[in-house]
Amino acid sequence: MRTIRNVKPEDLNQLSSIELQCFPEQKAATREAFQERIRLIPDSFWVAETNGIIEGFVNGPVTEEAYITDDLFTSTKENPPLGGHQTILGLAVPPHLQNQGIAAGLLKHLEQQAFMVKRQSVTLTCKEELTAFYERRGYINKGVSASNHGGIVWYNMTKELHK
C-alpha cells in the first residue's frame, strides 16, 4: 500500500537516484541540495512510498514571492509556520512508475498541507510539455519564467489556495 510521508535523512540515496533518473545532471538537484532541504524544510518535502521503496517525491520551500527564483535552487531557508507561497522545486517519479497517479497524488497532498497552513498559493516552473499536466490539476499558466535554471525555457504555473 502506498503512503505519503515527510522526508527522512535516510531517504537521501533513493531521492538522489530518482532525481538523476528524471532530470539531466545540469537540472538535477545535488545530494547537498537534498541534504539541506531534508534538514531545513521537511515540512514541505513529501515522499510516496510502498514497502520501504520511495516511488516519487515533491519538495520546495515557502517564499514571500509568488514565483520561483533561481536562488531557491541553491539556497534553502526554513519555512515560516503560516502564509507565504509554497514552491515546488521538484516533483519526480521514476520513468518505470510514471502514469500511475503517483505525481498527481503527491501534488494533491502538498496542496492540502499547504492549504492547512494558510499558504496563498502553490507555485512552480515547468517545461512547456508539462503545462497541460498542471493545468488539468487547476494550475494557471502565467507565461515564461524569468528563471534560466539549467539553460531551459520554463513556464510559471500557479494555483491559488487562499485569496
TrEMBL record:
<feature type="domain" description="N-acetyltransferase">
    <location>
        <begin position="2"/>
        <end position="162"/>
    </location>
</feature>
<dbReference type="InterPro" id="IPR000182">
    <property type="entry name" value="GNAT_dom"/>
</dbReference>
<dbReference type="InterPro" id="IPR051635">
    <property type="entry name" value="SNAT-like"/>
</dbReference>
<keyword id="KW-0808">Transferase</keyword>
<protein>
    <submittedName>
        <fullName>GNAT family acetyltransferase</fullName>
    </submittedName>
</protein>
<dbReference type="GO" id="GO:0008080">
    <property type="term" value="F:N-acetyltransferase activity"/>
</dbReference>
<dbReference type="InterPro" id="IPR016181">
    <property type="entry name" value="Acyl_CoA_acyltransferase"/>
</dbReference>
<dbReference type="Pfam" id="PF13673">
    <property type="entry name" value="Acetyltransf_10"/>
</dbReference>
<keyword id="KW-0012">Acyltransferase</keyword>
